[in-house]
Design a protein that fits this description.
Number of helices: 21
CATH architecture of the largest domain: 3-Layer(aba) Sandwich
Distance between the termini: 48 Å
CATH superfamily of the largest domain: Pyruvate-ferredoxin oxidoreductase, PFOR, domain III
Radius of gyration: 26 Å
Helix content: 25-40%
């Protein structure tokens, strides 16, 4: 029976083009109106090394990458060995491997069962014979996959034409020949693979974006016109994207010598009256900590897009982890208020970025947006109509406020009238020193206490106005799950599966992590009997952060935490639900 949901994984060495192959599968599927989630994984090498790409294609909406791969393509089994435990095949998977590679493979290392189908394919020979170069083996594979599994062949051909449109005509012609050779070879394979054919009805084309791209588009939409940054995996695509597009809207991009200088430049841009941001990862955020204190003290709007990766130190540059939370919330010398947001999927990256600028500008406060490699570098389909969001502009002080101008006026909500150079009467002194309402430096205890209170006073209205909460499942659930960031996708899918089985399971996913939506969360707990916290942090940063201000239900709180390096799976969440759900029998609600 044809399938409505298929997941493909391709593994090879650097230069084998497996990522390009995944991009083309994703693009072709998106053009046909299918839903797509594409993720990539690399080794730690700067150049070369192993790489993989996994593409889930479905005729129905999907929220996470699949736990198991239906179709696996391996150009080199030695490269696959480096992804052991990260790529797992379905027991009945189709496994296509290079005919010349005679490496003995233990099916248990893949997850394949006796019902799996193993097919040797002469990828290298087909590429050389048809296209004149072994480099075309990825294009040959595209033809093979489109014919064997019902992927949109015409759309795939157009993706190839677009990829090589700027090359010489003979290059495009050679790759089309390679694609055709893959189709013809697929027809010669004496296996009945009809049960693995993708079944779908073509629909309106969908937009295909990565989280980093969506964040960059969101920044431009929000009115950001200055970006300063230093390249660091896995956030560099924001710098690359904005360096191309920011000048087209009258903005500027600067690559600085390091992350400390980058955020210093951002604060300079913000002081000058321009919406400004940077992008980094954990090691870079660590370097920006001093400047975060300056942003808090000077009350300057600024946005940091932090794409988390495995740590500490250089850690896992190309793998996800949720371990920058403490650094984002608490990383500071002194008391330095900031806001911390967390997108949960690619579309969220656009909206969260706009909200980050809105909050930063309205409350004159730095905002850290905690994405991670899984969201930022994965590509996902979405509707173009969703890329719209209200934008709040920086307000110029009134004429009355410019009389005896107090830049740091102590107001009920903590927000003071802010000027920028060129506004007559709005000149003021600022630096990293504590100051009075005029900005004049002071070391008086009474002023320091009052100004600390002023700066922190902003957090309450932010918490009350910006909820950004996703909630799934019934109101009176037996089991409640709390997670954040990229964990939302697997949790949501697991909750929907549980609800379909008649199980009363719900999820609460906040997108404002600091200040945390305490009241909404406590309301969620009122109808819950057993409670699970899910996070990809070995030291349980999220759980311990919550314990600083929340009374979690004693004896009814269950923690799932582990290191990153492997994305959370739906199966892991479903196993948690199966373990905890029986405990809810005959128990009263928690609150």
């Amino acid at each position: 029976m044809p399938r409505s949901d298929l997941t493909f994984a391709m593994v090879g060495s650097g230069g084998d083009g497996v990522v390009t192959m995944g991009d083309m599968v994703a693009q072709a599927a998106a053009r046909e109106g299918l839903y797509v989630i594409k993720v990539e994984a690399y080794g730690p090498q700067i150049r070369g090394g192993e790489s993989s790409t996994t593409v889930r294609v479905s005729s129905e909406d999907i929220f996470a990458q699949a736990d198991q791969v239906d179709v696996l393509v391996v150009f080199n089994w030695k490269d696959f060995a480096r992804f052991k435990g990260e790529i797992t095949t379905a027991p009945d998977a189709i496994i296509l491997s290079e005919a010349r590679d005679d490496t003995e493979v233990d099916p248990a290392d893949l997850g394949a069962g006796p019902e799996a189908t193993w097919i040797k394919v002469p990828f290298i020979e087909l590429a050389k014979e048809s296209a004149g170069t072994t480099l075309a083996k990825n294009i040959v594979t595209l033809g093979l996959l489109s014919e064997l599994f019902g992927l949109p062949q015409d759309a795939m051909r157009r993706a190839i034409e677009k990829k090589f449109a700027k090359k010489k005509a003979e290059v495009l012609e050679a790759n089309i020949k390679g694609f055709t050779a893959g189709i013809e070879h697929a027809r010669s394979i004496d296996q009945d693979l009809s049960p693995w054919q993708l079944s779908y009805t073509p629909g309106e084309p969908k937009l295909l974006m990565s989280g980093n791209e969506a964040a960059a588009v969101g920044a431009i939409h929000a009115g950001c016109r200055f970006f300063a940054g230093y390249p660091i995996t896995p956030s560099s695509e924001v710098l690359h994207f904005l360096s191309q597009w920011m000048p087209k809207v009258g903005g500027y991009v600067v690559q600085t010598e390091d992350e400390l200088a980058a955020f210093g430049a951002v604060l300079g841009g913000s002081f000058a009256g321009v919406k400004s941001m940077t992008a980094t990862s954990g090691p870079g955020l660590a370097l920006m900590t001093e400047m975060l204190g300056l942003a808090s003290m000077a009350e300057l709007p600024a946005v940091i897009w932090d794409v988390q990766r495995g740590g500490p130190s250089t850690g896992l540059p190309t793998k996800s982890e949720q371990s920058d939370l403490w650094q984002a919330v608490f990383g500071s010398h002194g008391d330095a208020p900031r806001v911390v947001l967390a997108p949960a999927d690619v579309e969220d990256c656009f909206h969260t970025m706009v909200d980050a600028f809105n909050i930063a500008e309205e409350y004159q406060i730095p905002v850290v947006v905690l994405s991670d490699q899984n969201i930022a570098q994965r590509r996902e389909t979405l509707s173009m109509l969703t890329l719209d969001h209200e934008v709040k502009e920086r307000l110029r002080p009134s004429d009355d406020e410019l009389v005896d101008y107090k830049r740091y006026k102590d107001t009920p909500d903590g927000v003071s009238p802010m000027t920028w150079p060129g506004i007559k009467g709005g000149e003021y002194q600022t630096n990293g020193l504590e100051h009075d309402e005029y900005g004049h430096p002071t070391s008086m205890h009474i002023v320091h206490e009052r100004m600390n209170a002023k700066r922190y006073r902003k957090l309450r209205p932010i918490r009350d106005r910006y909820h950004f909460i996703r909630r799934y499942g019934p109101e009176d659930a037996d089991v409640g799950i709390l997670c954040w960031g990229s964990s939302k996708g697997p949790v949501k899918e697991a909750v929907m599966n549980a609800n379909a089985r008649g199980e009363k399971v719900a999820a609460f996913v906040p997108q404002v992590l600091y200040p945390f939506p305490k009241h909404e969360f406590e309301s969620f707990l009122k109808e819950i009997k057993e409670f699970i916290i899910v996070e990809l942090s070995f030291s349980a940063q999220f759980y311990k952060y919550l314990r600083t201000f929340l009374e979690l239900p004693e004896g009814h709180t269950h923690l799932f935490k582990r290191s990153g390096g492997k994305n959370l799976t739906v199966t892991e969440v479903e196993e948690l639900i199966a373990k905890v759900l029986p405990l809810a029998t005959d128990r009263e609600v928690l609150v």
